[in-house]
Design goal:
The structure holds 2 protein chains of 2 kinds.
Chain A (H helix, E strand, L loop, with lengths): L1 E6 L1 H19 L5 E6 L3 H16 L5 E5 L30 E9 L3 H10 L7 E10 L11 E6 L5 E6 L1 H4 L3 E6 L1
Parallel strand pairs in A: 2-3, 2-4, 4-5, 5-6
Antiparallel strand pairs in A: 1-8, 7-8
Helix pairs in contact in A: 1-2
Chain B lengths: L16 H17 L14 E6 L5 H12 L3 E6 L11 H9 L5 E6 L4 H8 L3 E7 L5 H15 L6 E5 L6 H12 L3 E5 L15 E3 L2 H7 L2 E4 L15 H8 L3 H5 L6 E3 L12 H4 L6 H20 L5
Parallel strand pairs in B: 1-2, 1-3, 3-4, 5-6, 5-8, 6-7, 8-9
The chains are: A alpha/beta, B alpha/beta.
């Protein structure tokens, strides 16, 4: 197994600052915008962005939700090891809101497809955008592209891109892992 | 583990503590789903489920059907009263005929003990027992434990008394197995004639004094007197039963603590419990009904997960 460092802690911080800045540019005071982190690992990203929006831009009353997509996946009954569901925590409806879906890595696009279906259980949003930290190019199975991307990378299919977060993995870093 | 250790849900006797934990964890997620504006997930859209009810049921049948539809499964319903069973068809023939229509899961209620177990050995489908005679009713026991866990935080070390017709109750037997697995203390209380011999061998305490039982417990699960299953008179009169084993508000108020009241339904108001007890704030009877849908969704989802493409 080889492990290559793709982004350092410092690089991640710069990227997060930029992503937060881009969100503010498009959504101003977030009055009609909600941020939805996709379980499990999109939650860390959304929390970081919230922290920057609060500290740097003094915007703190943003509606934030956590969305689990397990029951919407298209590989149910097709996996050797079934996936356990995570908590969905969205205590508002998204009717006529601008929804920003947030995840750490965009690969095949299938998780996002599932999230697009899942979010409609909470109403009809006026628009949905996608923000990802890592966008893997040339790996999409579906016509899905991000509106905000941290870094675009080219890696071959058998390689895995892993985002480590200080809160969970003791350090911020992005690795390319080749098994 | 994210998988059940069993292939069918025939009874609580066959499952492990880890299965109960997995079902409850999954049910937590489904409970959130059924409280959304759109209460449905697409997981089982290519699964067909047959509900075979050879015995009357309102709540269980509706609850299963709703759970299946919330998971997007295709559902067909069958009641023995309107079927070829009346014309002499055997259980296996009925089931196989239904399976030829490409059914993946069978939810069955049957008046004979062991009918689901028998079916599971002879047909190629996932079987969920929705009550077999006086034997087991596993999903009811699961939703009862789930409701206790929701109300009191956990089931372990809680004192639960099951009151009433223990002899004819599949709910009682499944509950005893489920509560035992989770480490609860269990007591049964009722007329001596309606308590099976040797029930102590399951590790339960037997009590015939209702007041003593209620003073001991944290939760009272009150059962209905199953007149339809009684071939002889087990007690002199309904009035006498109510006087000795009926729970009313005065009795509850005379206890040292506030206990939780449960009932699997249907309630005979004024017989085993009075209306003011059934509707009191310490009663979780309607929570049980809501949780029933979430728990059944979890059971069906986890069993369907094992059906490979």
């Amino acid at each position: 197994m080889s492990k290559k460092l793709l982004l350092t802690e410092k690089e991640i911080h710069i990227i997060l600052q930029r992503l937060a800045c881009q969100l503010v540019e498009n959504h101003q005071d977030f009055k009609s915008t909600v941020l939805i982190g996709i379980q499990p690992r999109g939650i860390f990203l959304v929390n970081r962005l919230m922290q920057i929006l609060k500290e740097e831009y003094h915007i703190s009353d943003i509606k934030v939700g956590q969305l689990d997509i397990t029951f919407y996946r298209d590989d149910f009954r097709r996996r050797e090891d079934p996936i356990a569901a995570n908590t969905t925590n969205i205590n508002f409806i998204v009717e006529n809101k601008n929804v920003v879906l947030i995840d750490d890595v965009l690969f095949s696009g299938r998780s996002i497809r599932a999230a697009l279906t899942a979010i409609q259980s909470f109403g009809r949003p006026s628009a949905i955008e996608l923000l990802v930290l890592i966008d893997r190019r040339f790996s999409r199975h579906l016509p899905i592209q991000p509106d905000y991307r941290g870094r675009q990378v080219d890696v071959i299919n058998k390689e895995k891109v892993t985002v480590n977060w200080l809160e969970k993995d003791k350090k911020d870093a992005v690795y390319i892992i080749n098994n | 583990m994210n998988q059940l250790s069993v292939q069918h849900l025939l009874g609580i006797k066959h499952i492990k503590k880890s299965d109960i934990d997995l079902i409850f964890k999954t049910a937590d997620h489904f409970k959130e789903v059924i409280n959304r504006p759109i209460k449905k997930v697409p997981s089982l859209r290519d699964i067909t489920i047959a509900n075979l009810f050879f015995e009357n049921s309102t709540r269980t049948k509706l609850s299963f059907e709703l759970a299946e539809k919330r998971l997007s499964a295709d559902v067909i319903n069958f009641s023995a009263s309107q079927s070829s069973v009346k014309k002499g068809e055997t259980l296996i023939d009925t089931a196989n005929n239904i399976l030829s229509m490409k059914v993946d899961v069978i939810v069955m209620r049957h008046p004979s003990v062991g009918a689901c177990d028998f079916l599971s050995k002879h047909v190629n489908a996932k079987i969920v027992n929705a009550g077999d005679g006086t034997h087991e009713h596993p999903t009811q026991a699961l939703l009862d434990s789930y409701s206790i866990r929701e109300k009191l935080g956990e089931v372990k070390d809680k004192k639960i008394v099951i009151i009433g017709d223990i002899l004819h109750s599949r709910v009682a037997l499944s509950n005893i197995y489920a509560l035992k697995l989770q480490g609860a203390e269990i007591m049964v209380c009722g007329p001596k004639t309606l308590i099976p011999k040797y029930i102590e061998s399951l590790g339960v305490i037997v009590e015939t004094n209702l007041k003593k039982a209620l003073n001991w417990c944290d939760v009272a699960n009150v059962l209905r007197v199953q007149n339809e299953r009684m071939d002889i008179n087990y007690f002199p009169s309904t009035r006498e039963y109510t006087q000795l084993f009926g729970i009313d508000k005065t009795l509850l108020n005379s206890l040292d603590k506030k206990i939780v009241i449960m009932h699997p339904g249907p309630i005979n108001r004024g017989v085993e419990i009075t209306s003011d007890v059934a509707d009191a704030d310490q009663s979780i009877i309607l929570n049980q009904v809501e949780n029933g849908v979430a728990v059944r969704m979890a059971v069906i989802y986890l069993l369907a997960q094992q059906i490979k493409q």
